[in-house]
Design brief:
alpha+beta; Beta-Lactamase; 6-stranded antiparallel β-sheet; 12 helices; 11 strands; elongated; cell membrane
């Protein structure tokens, strides 16, 4: 119980408790902020990675789509198809050689084949097909025969190699637009899968790719399986958004998937993270902050213990000295080592003991003098034995009147002194009131000045807000002009795309001589599509900026309205300060008047006390004289005995007082 009541404990416990609460709040808040920042950063980073992977997949497959498109208009292929229909076998070797060159050029292609409308098939590398094999019954043939564009199949597992394979096929027409057959290419997705899998997503995340029906093209554990059994995959396939982020649970773990569709194929590229892995960083930061907080708490507690001990140490010294004084040792001196409040208390304690020593020394000296006087009085009382008692009766009557006059004078002096003390107290209070009124006037003037500065700052802020509102409105107007320009760019991109398509058709008609021009036209069309996409993205950004600027204008209007209300409040406050200033001035003037009157009363009081003191002194002198006469007139023997007894009592009291003084140690 003694420890709990000590000053050191009372100082340290609240400070340490406050530090613990502050560190706990800081650690929790920073951990929460870190968790949210990491999650947002990972999602933003993953969106970029997934978009890049989507572009990689698109570029990888586009090369085969473009190449099969060129093969479908190749004269050798068309000649082979026509020869088969017409029963001519001359073009077979040339087509096989062309297929061989194609296989050498594209290493990921496992097979290239051409199914002719009459049911024959040319395939490279050459393999023996079943006798009843009819390409016209195959999906790659039926899906492409009525279309003039490349058709992609669902990914499937190659029975020979076990690799994931996808087939792209395209119908072949001759120069007269006669259907000749379907050209097909089997592409091994192993290289693409390895390229995607090697992408470092960070935080132990992994990439996945699945087809429109949910077949896993790239997956660390479910390669080739259907993923629609996972609810989030089904949601992505059934959803209308081509990209986004979804949260789900799998195998009892919280997970995040960031996805994006591959344009033209409807394949979905995704990045999957275990949410627990994202929290590792925030947990690490939290542990670091916890250990840092503990170390800082220990260091601060040690520093506070040192500081508090340095404060409490002189107080303990003062406590020990006070106990010594209580036991009678007035020679104690407390060392004054500081100039703060503790040092001032120690100095006051030393001054108190010094004053007590001085008083007791004077008392000791007075005791000696009283003893001598008592002995002298005893001798005098013996000498007065010869006094006469004839004057007793007359002098007693005079003595009675003088004594009453002296008592009345003493009472008047006492009352005058009491009145004087009260007037002194009133004078001091009046001076304090005058100083307080002066300080109130100064504080009021300072508050008035600060109100004026606040009003000026409020007016400047209002001007800045009006200017900012005008700038935002001008920005919104300029964004509208930019949107018109973007629309023009979009129109130009569409026209360029149309021209590139027409150029590709003309190049196809030109045959072998137009092959180079067809490639150029295709690249122009691709650039036109990219320009259109970029223009749409810019238009979307401008729309977001316009929406933001409108919101900012509304906020500016609300802020301006708030500042108008604030300005009115400042004006009202300014009026109140001016009224308060007038009241304080009136009060200060009244206090000065009261103070002046009190000073005049004080002067009159001093004169009254001086006069009453003179009267009391005269009465006391008369009383003393009467007592002396009365004493002389009293019965000599009785007076002598009374004085003798009083002298003996006085000597006894002086002896007792001497013993009391001797109990104190003065040096």
């Amino acid at each position: 119980m003694k420890v709990i009541k000590s000053i050191k404990t009372k100082l340290l416990l609240p400070i340490i408790a406050a530090l613990i609460l502050a560190f706990a709040f800081i650690i929790g808040f920073i951990s929460w902020q870190t968790e949210n920042s990491v999650e947002k950063s990972v999602i933003a980073q993953s969106e970029g990675i997934v978009e890049s992977l989507s572009g990689t997949v698109k570029s990888f497959l586009d090369q085969y789509e473009k190449s099969i498109g060129l093969l479908s208009v190749n004269e050798t292929i068309q000649a082979y198809g026509s020869a088969e229909l017409d029963g001519d076998e001359a073009a077979s070797q040339q087509t096989a050689a062309l297929f061989g060159d194609y296989l050498e050029t594209y290493g990921e292609v496992t097979n290239i084949y051409f199914g002719v409308e009459d049911g024959t098939t040319l395939i490279m590398p050459e393999i023996e097909l079943p006798a009843d094999f009819d390409p016209r019954e195959r999906d790659w043939y039926t899906q492409a025969e009525n279309k003039k564009a490349a058709v992609w199949s669902e990914p499937y597992e190659d029975t020979a190699t076990g690799a994931s394979v996808v087939t792209v096929s395209r119908a072949v027409y001759d120069a007269n637009d006669r259907f000749l057959g379907v050209l097909g290419v089997d592409i091994d997705l192993t290289v693409l899968a390895e390229r995607v899998t090697q992408t470092d997503l960070g935080y132990k995340g992994y990439p996945i790719i699945f087809s429109p029906v949910g077949t896993a093209i790239v997956h660390p554990t479910l390669q080739g399986e259907n993923l629609t059994k996972v609810d989030v995959v089904k949601e992505i396939i059934d959803g209308s958004s081509p990209s986004g982020t979804k949260y789900y649970q799998m195998d009892g773990e919280d997970r995040i998937i960031v996805f994006n569709n591959v344009p033209g194929l409807n394949w979905t590229v995704g990045a999957v993270y275990n949410k627990a892995n994202l929290l590792d960083l925030s947990e690490s930061v939290g542990q670091s902050l916890l250990w840092t907080g503990i170390i800082l708490l220990i260091l601060i507690s040690a520093a506070m213990l040192f500081v508090v001990s340095s404060i409490v140490k002189p107080l303990r010294q003062l406590e020990r000295s006070a106990f010594q004084v209580a036991e009678g040792d007035l020679s104690v001196q407390v060392p004054v080592t500081t100039k703060d409040e503790v040092g001032q208390v120690a100095a006051a304690f030393n001054k108190m003991t010094e004053n007590m020593r001085t008083i007791l020394q004077k008392v000791n000296h007075s005791v000696q003098e009283v003893k001598v006087s008592a002995e002298s009085l005893s001798a005098v009382s013996e000498e007065t034995n010869a006094s006469s008692e004839q004057m007793t009766h007359a002098i007693n009557e005079i003595t009675l009147g003088v004594s009453r006059s002296a008592e009345d004078s003493a009472e008047a002096v006492e009352r005058s002194n009491s009145l004087g003390n009260q007037i002194d107290v009133i004078t001091r209070q009046a001076n304090e009131m005058a100083r307080a009124a002066s300080q109130a006037e100064q504080a009021n003037q300072k508050g008035t000045g600060q109100i004026e500065e606040l009003r000026t700052a409020s007016d400047e802020t209002k001007t800045y807000i009006s200017g900012m509102q005008t700038v935002i409105e001008e920005l919104e107007s300029k964004m509208t002009s930019v949107e018109v320009v973007i629309q023009a760019i979009t129109d130009i991109s569409a026209q360029t795309n149309l021209l590139a398509l027409n150029a590709s058709i003309e190049a196809a008609r030109a045959g072998e001589h137009g092959k180079g021009f067809a490639v150029v036209a295709e690249e122009v069309r691709k650039l036109a599509e990219q320009s259109g996409q970029a223009a749409n993205q810019v238009r979307k950004t401008i729309t977001d900026i316009q929406a933001g600027s409108k919101t900012a204008v509304e906020h500016m209007k609300k802020t301006r309205s708030n500042f108008d209300e604030q300005t009115m409040a400042v004006e009202e406050t300014s009026k109140i300060f001016h009224q308060l200033s007038a009241l304080v001035g009136t009060m200060e003037s009244s206090i000065i008047t009261i103070n002046r009157e009190i000073k005049e009363v004080g002067l009159t009081k001093d004169e009254v006390i001086y006069t009453m003191t003179g009267i009391a002194a005269s009465s006391q002198q008369s009383a003393a004289a009467s007592e002396e006469v009365s004493a002389s007139a009293e019965e000599q023997l009785k007076a002598v005995r009374t004085v003798t007894e009083s002298s003996e009592q006085l000597m006894g009291l002086s002896a007792e007082l001497k013993e009391v003084v001797n109990q104190f140690k003065l040096a």
